[in-house]
Amino acid sequence: MLEALEGSQALARAVALCRPQVISAYPITPQTHIVENISKLVADGKLDCEFVSVESEFSAASVALGAAMAGSRAYTASASQGILLMAEVLYNIAGSRVPLVLTCANRAVSSPLSIWNDQQDSMSVRDAGWIQLYCADNQEAVDTTIQAYRIAERCELPVMVCVDGFTLTHTLEGIDVPEPEQVDGFLPAYQFSRTLTPTNPISMGTLVSPDFYPEARHSHHQALLNAATEIIAADEDWGEVCGRRYGGLLKTMGDPEAKTVILSMGSVLGTLQASLQEYPQQESIKLVQLRCFRPFPRQAIQQACAGAERVIVLERALSPGSGGIVGNEVLAALSEVETRPQLFNCAAGLGGRDIPLDIVPRLLDAASQATPGHFQILDVQLDKLPQEDR
Amino acid sequence: MQETTIPATNLRQKQPRFQGMTAGHRACLGCGEALGARLVTEAAGPDVMIANATGCLEIFTTSWPESAWRVPWMHSLFENTGAIAAGMEAALKAQKKSTKVLAFGGDGGTFDIGFQALSGMLERGHNVLYVCFDNEAYMNTGIQRSSSTPHAAMTTTSPPGKERMGKRHLKKDMVSIVAAHHIPYAATSSVAWPSDIRKKVRRAMAIDGPTFLQIHVPCPLGWGFDGAKTIEVGRLAVQTGLFPIIEIERGGLTGVLPIRNPRPVEDYLKEQGRFRHLFKKNDLRAQQELAHIQAIADHNIEVYELKGHGSSAFDDEGMTLVQRGGLRRA
Predict the structure, then answer these.
(1) What Enzyme Commission number does this protein have (chain B) (predicted)?
(2) Entry pTM
(3) CATH level 3 topology of B18-159+169-327
């Protein structure tokens, strides 16, 4: 049954359905509504868990880690500065191979201070060793959260579910909240293989000498690559339960034979679809929603772009001094194919700048004018900048 | 009368006790922290789970694939031990288990970088015994000053010189800050008083709520003394009044280890290389700093009434009778 729910409210319900035993969080816009809604579920007796209202994001991640190590299913959520404050713990969680789920309500990173949406926060911790899944709408965010626990627990890896701040977290949509029995069947009670317990004492997080460190890193890398199978399986199996599937690692839309591909992540996919309807193009276009950024699905991207003459990567973050982050990785993936399409790389919607409905014609226009491989930020009012910055 | 001596090995066998931290670790000879951690885990027993901050204790007890721990133990980071312990406790509570969570940190991980996470843990009332092994500097990185380093002590980042006489600032009064969270029990102790540590650990273990124990653990390498003198140096810190042994319950002072006849601070300072610059001949600054440190000790003696009232079998008069090499001369 569809319910009109704000994204954060829907996410809180989804988290509760996963029956976490410990939740820790610290407020930050635009994540706040998620933990507020969870607190209310706890207060109303609808969710039986230890809710630890911590004194920083650093402790939020640490409490979740301690709880997972002591054998509980745990959850936390954050955004922007909070994700960066957690950064050290995020690496620690992933390196310890601890299953956890974190919602990142994507937001720009200061300075300049912006509370609005882009994906600089989660992109900045892309090398922490977490699985990263990006959601296009709130129904997908709900379903992905449930899938995330199964993926995390089967792979013994933490999963970051990335949801665009405000665009999704603060938007009301008709949501089908799954039934508890559906989730319980999909996500049975779980016992972490390395749970700390006095009856079988182990030491975790020990010092590792150069004799073993590269092996640990290799295993971690391999575990992330192997996780692709579980990500696809979770989408497929949850699809069996609820009837909704999101393409596993990525989802393609539009003309499969199209010569132009537009690839992006997150809620902008909805805008791109609407733009294609509103501004029908003469040339056929294929949209690729990159759902899974870590592990990076090289082969799936190669397949999705097969036959294309140009690929436009639209992203919501950048690496200053280098350019697009997703774009660079897609370029690297496509460099391995025989007939290599041209790649155009744009960032848009930074710090909450509106991505207008005519985004598709704008992108095509920008791509037709740009040198392939060149990165640019769309929609920059250069006349407002000092000469040397133009 | 026939002399009854029991060989030390037999004595140990007559006192079978659980060891949470076993031999074979890589601590320096005479390490006060290793002794402290052993005493705490012995008294706490096997039904515990430990969150350990980065530091000497973490490094010398574990080097993968070896570990000195016989209890479930985890090291995450330097500054999140309070939060890791809080998470463990929340999980055990959710699972309705009674295993006690212990958190171990050095003074750097407790007084400085992990201060916030500890404060949060105390404020939220987690059922955790947090033990700070206080060796008064960042020993794991090679003896740098922390906010626990005592005034005038030499470390590699507070060296004495033409313009400096060691650390310029005072030792942070951590136990008072912790007690200001109005937790049920906060106390200090010293490895020179093993029975005091055991008593306080048992006390804290029995309390359902946040408790804190700061144990003074002399560091032969960092302080500059012979590793055979750890206990003597630790004892002098207490007997001079520089490290008061106290108990604070719900914010009120409830216990003090009395020192009937305080020793002059020089007795303690001159044993250690880190205070060597205070004994330079004909140096006015050295004399001033010695007077300053004596004033700090006098202040502690007055504030905590360390000279005590009446007599008690458990005060340091009794304790000092037992020392290396037999009975103390009368």
Answers:
(1) 1.2.7.1
(2) 0.94
(3) Rossmann fold (3.40.50)
